[in-house]
Amino acid sequence: MARTPNYFKGKTIAITGAASGLGRAAAVIFAREGARVVCGDIDDAGGAETVRAVEAEGSEAIFVKTDVTRRTDVRNFVQAGVERFGRIHFLFNSAGSALKRCGFLEIDDELFDLSFDLNVKGTFYGMQEVLPHMLENGGGTIVNVASMAHKRGGPGTSVHYASAKGAVVTMTMGVAREFADRGIRCLSISPAAVNTGFQAASGTSKEMAERLMNDIPMKRNAEADEIGELVLFLCSDACQFMTADTVYVSGGGGFR
């Protein structure tokens, strides 16, 4: 089935981690298709910039300061979107981070807990807060960000992060199957390296970044826009039979 023209026009997507990277790229791409955007992030300045980028595409957006590790923040984020636009049709749980690189024996309780709070609980809160609204309004589509790291386990550098992203994949599958007959589709995407500020933020050295890129058969990282276009496709009416699946975006098998 081909994607229906103007399918996204007048619909609303809520995006966590919208101030930069994958979240901002998706916000602009959806806006280009006529969707309105609810932008959630802890970064006020970045969130405001994303709103301006959406408006430059001729669409509407609001920014809601959101720490996804706090349920009350996520609840306010969803409620603000519903109050402004009336309905949320799509949720893109983009917020997440590896936080820092270290060996398994160097992972302390604080790092482990924060990794799961940010990557797993943040996704959990997003889905749990938006699902009642979607169910009351005939359904919706959720796309969660996992990582190719969960396939390899993150040995020596990011077991905490890979484990958290593995949990995201499992949770996505469970939610998708529980609500599949009620108009809900839930998918996850597992990118390899993407050209955003993610690697620098997690303390990835230049040498490690080059090694990770060279592990990708295409010998390059993905661009944020390429991931955003995938999210658009997964939310479209061309993908109505896809749910519970994880889409690997690896350039031919990076990180495997």
Q: Can you give keywords for this protein?
A:
16% strand; 9 helices; Rossmann fold; 256 residues; 7-stranded parallel β-sheet; globular; alpha/beta; single chain; two-stranded parallel sheet
What does this structure look like?
The chain is an alpha/beta fold and 256 residues long. The chain has one domain: 3-Layer(aba) Sandwich (Rossmann fold). It is 46% helix and 16% strand. The chain contains 9 helices and 9 strands. The strands form 2 sheets. It has a 7-stranded parallel beta sheet with strand order 3-2-1-4-5-6-9, sandwiched between helices. Strands 7-8 form a two-stranded parallel ribbon. Strand 2, helix 2 and strand 3 form a beta-alpha-beta unit. Helix 1 runs parallel beside helix 2, helix 1 crosses helix 9 and helix 3 runs parallel beside helix 4.
Provide a brief overview of the structure.
With 256 residues, the chain is of the alpha/beta class.
What is the share of helical residues? 40-55%
Give the strand content.
15-25%
Rg over CA atoms: 17 Å
Regions with little confidence, pLDDT below 50 for 5+ residues: none
How is the topology of this model organized?
Elements: E1 12-16, H1 21-32, E2 36-41, H2 44-56, E3 61-65, H3 71-85, E4 90-93, H4 109-136, E5 140-145, H5 149-152, H6 159-178, E6 184-191, E7 194-195, H7 198-201, H8 206-214, E8 222-223, H9 224-235, E9 246-249
Parallel strand pairs: 1-2, 1-4, 2-3, 4-5, 5-6, 6-9, 7-8
Helix pairs in contact: 1-2, 1-9, 3-4, 4-6
